[in-house]
């Protein structure tokens, strides 16, 4: 068996240890005689799995007791509608558009009320984060929405926007658990798990209690109400049981590694290796302004589409997979999530050096 270094933006690399553990438990989960995939979500065994996953996540992130943790389906994209349906009591929300995902969320919210674009970085292909220290926040805004780490463009908010007292809602799909956060700064902090946590097919939404009410937009389906899932402990209907189990294993792995402070250090070290190389390279160039660079997603280009294509092809042959950039940016993108070992980034940088020597 030979595993590649997988730089995919998502679904993405998982810790090898976690995959092996899941393999060992595949046919017989701890003496149950069945796989977690085959087990009732109403069973005591599964209840333990979901309870432990939630407790470990609360521990890792320091989630205060006045926040609910919901394990939901429909990915991050369904939250684009669930958020306005549950939160737009005044029918107004402010969106900061820093990439495709924020843009999609903003477009979706327009179906349910007045969504205002209060800042954007689209003028420069989303290569920076706009100044959010003194935005024209709408006086009656129900919330201010951001995408905290922009998976496609490789930017990250280094400071949260000044929402002037309004509820902040953040999509953290691609930076979830990459560093410590102060959950109390947010009304909702949510993300699809397939980037930095587990397999695809689930979103974790961490929501302050006062935002979970029956007062939702008329016609909101039962399944789209936060309260439905909060009241049922994420077991209103059959959840993505196997994904919850895998995420739970990743939470334990993160705790064993030392928690989010340690992950932040590791992620900074890995990102520095790559950015330092890009900053002195004569062939490759990062596409993001240095002050807004993401620790997780690193887009870069040579400036020559043929050379980019050659790089992607040859890197794949060298066991470095999924380095092709998003179609809207071109070039390359290395996603270096928690589970990407430092060795993977070192191998990538060594390959880039060699490619530069051969092609400059
Ligand atoms: C991948 C991604 C999404 C979409 O996630 P799905 O689970 O496929 O709906 C949304 N937001 C961000 C920031 C992402 O990276």
Automatic annotation (TrEMBL):
L-glutamate binds at residue 42. InterPro entries: Aminotrans_V_dom, Pser_aminoTfrase, PyrdxlP-dep_Trfase, PyrdxlP-dep_Trfase_major, PyrdxlP-dep_Trfase_small. It catalyses: 4-(phosphooxy)-L-threonine + 2-oxoglutarate = (R)-3-hydroxy-2-oxo-4-phosphooxybutanoate + L-glutamate; O-phospho-L-serine + 2-oxoglutarate = 3-phosphooxypyruvate + L-glutamate. Its cofactor is pyridoxal 5'-phosphate. GO terms for cellular component: cytoplasm. The gene is serC. It comes from Fusicatenibacter saccharivorans. Pfam families: Aminotran_5. Catalyzes the reversible conversion of 3-phosphohydroxypyruvate to phosphoserine and of 3-hydroxy-2-oxo-4-phosphonooxybutanoate to phosphohydroxythreonine. This is Phosphoserine aminotransferase. Homodimer. Keywords: Amino-acid biosynthesis, Aminotransferase, Cytoplasm, Pyridoxal phosphate, Serine biosynthesis, Transferase. The keyword Metal-binding does not apply. It comes from the Bacteria. The modification N6-(pyridoxal phosphate)lysine is found at residue 195. GO terms for molecular function: O-phospho-L-serine:2-oxoglutarate aminotransferase activity; pyridoxal phosphate binding. SUPFAM superfamilies: PLP-dependent transferases. Its EC number is 2.6.1.52. Its main location: cytoplasm. Belongs to the class-V pyridoxal-phosphate-dependent aminotransferase family. SerC subfamily. Residues 4-348 form the Aminotransferase class V domain. It is an enzyme of class 2 (transferase). Pathway: Amino-acid biosynthesis; L-serine biosynthesis; L-serine from 3-phospho-D-glycerate: step 2/3. CDD domains: PSAT_like. GO terms for biological process: L-serine biosynthetic process. Pyridoxal 5'-phosphate binds at residues 76-77, 101, 151, 171, 194, 237-238. Binds 1 pyridoxal phosphate per subunit.
């Amino acid at each position: 068996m030979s595993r590649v270094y997988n730089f995919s933006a998502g679904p993405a690399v998982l810790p090898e240890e976690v995959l092996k553990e899941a393999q060992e438990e595949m046919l017989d989960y701890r003496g149950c005689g069945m796989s977690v995939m085959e087990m009732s979500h109403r069973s005591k065994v599964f209840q333990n799995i979901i309870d432990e996953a939630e407790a470990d996540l609360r521990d890792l992130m320091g989630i205060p007791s006045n926040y609910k943790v919901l394990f939901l389906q429909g990915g991050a994209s369904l939250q684009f509608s669930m958020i306005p349906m549950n939160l737009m009591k005044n029918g107004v929300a402010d969106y900061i558009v820093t990439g495709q995902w924020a843009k999609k969320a903003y477009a979706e919210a327009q179906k349910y009320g007045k969504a205002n674009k209060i800042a954007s970085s689209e003028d420069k292909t989303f290569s920076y984060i706009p100044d959010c220290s003194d935005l024209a926040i709408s006086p009656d805004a129900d919330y201010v929405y951001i995408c905290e780490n922009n998976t496609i463009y490789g930017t990250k908010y280094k400071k949260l926007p000044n929402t002037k007292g309004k509820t902040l809602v953040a999509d953290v799909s691609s930076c979830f658990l990459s560093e410590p956060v102060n959950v109390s700064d947010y009304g909702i902090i949510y993300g699809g798990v397939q980037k930095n946590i587990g397999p695809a097919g689930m979103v974790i939404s961490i929501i302050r209690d006062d935002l979970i009410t029956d007062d939702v937009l008329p016609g909101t389906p039962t399944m789209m109400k936060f309260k439905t899932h909060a009241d049922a402990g994420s077991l209103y209907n059959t959840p993505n049981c196997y994904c919850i189990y895998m995420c739970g294993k990743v939470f334990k792995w993160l705790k064993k590694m030392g928690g989010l402070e340690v992950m932040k250090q590791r992620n900074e070290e890995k990102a520095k290796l790559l950015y330092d190389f890009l900053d002195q390279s004569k062939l490759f160039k990062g596409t993001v302004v240095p002050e807004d660079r993401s620790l997780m997603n690193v887009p870069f280009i040579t400036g020559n589409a043929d050379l980019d294509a050659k790089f992607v092809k040859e890197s794949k042959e060298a066991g470095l997979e999924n380095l092709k950039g998003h179609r809207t940016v071109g070039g390359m993108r290395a996603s270096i999530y928690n589970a990407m070992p430092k060795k993977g980034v070192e191998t990538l940088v060594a390959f880039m050096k060699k490619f530069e020597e051969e092609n400059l």
